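User: I'm curious what two different proteins look like when written out as structure tokens. Can you demonstrate?

Assistant: Sure. I'll show them one after the other, since each token string lines up with its own sequence. Here's the first protein:
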Amino acid sequence: MAPPEHGDEKRRRDQGRPLPEGDSLYTPGAGRLRRAVEERSAVPLVWLHQRPRWLAPLVLGALFITGLMAPGPVGALCLLLVAAFFVWLAFLTWPSLNGQARAARVLMVVVVLVLAVARALGY
């Protein structure tokens, strides 16, 4: 039988990980498009942050492997979902990245998109 939980301990467990330090989830001086995307992304980002750290890589890995193994359109769709997630995260982190990190993200998205097109064409 589990010992009874104290109020503070139970609240901490239910809330998941605390949010990162900072005043805002938004980029200061951002344009209209960036501001709109950041505002729309706030809730999904907080939701992802509160899940276990292994969940997003596990789901993305499963989608990527399924995309490589599944035939035709199903595989292409899985790979497109992976690419869309990468594009979303790259867009949100772009202002804080240096040139090398930006190039790595662009390359990663391009590789996944090439694989998706190849899968859609039956290769």
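Here's a second, unrelated protein for contrast:
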Amino acid sequence: MPEKKRILIVEDDSNFADTLKFTLEKRGYNVVGVAGSSDEAVESVKKIKPNIVLMDIELKGEKTNGIETGLTMRENGYKVPILFLSGLDKSEILEYSQNTSQVSNSSYIYKLSDLNDFDVVLKHGLGKGYGNK
């Protein structure tokens, strides 16, 4: 049986992170970690070597946001696909979507998307076949 792909969640809202983790695991995904900050996310990518990172665009209380964290990962040589998550309204997402293009091998999705849409985007990111450093 093939090894399940490893997913890292980067989310500062612990309730949302727990719900997302539960939902993904219930759908058969392998969530290997949850990071609540930028520093924790970069360290987790180094240690865990996930196949994809689900990253909140806005990390509250952080000096850096999710996009800057993704850029830091790239600067450190980590090529893991990143799926940016945002709970902002759709007009605000447009501004962020232009910024996410700065991070290679990334995409974004609205946090409250239909689970089937979320599945499609997640499977596409996992199927890209990019590894880590």
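A detail about the second structure: Confidence is low (pLDDT under 50) at residues 129-133.
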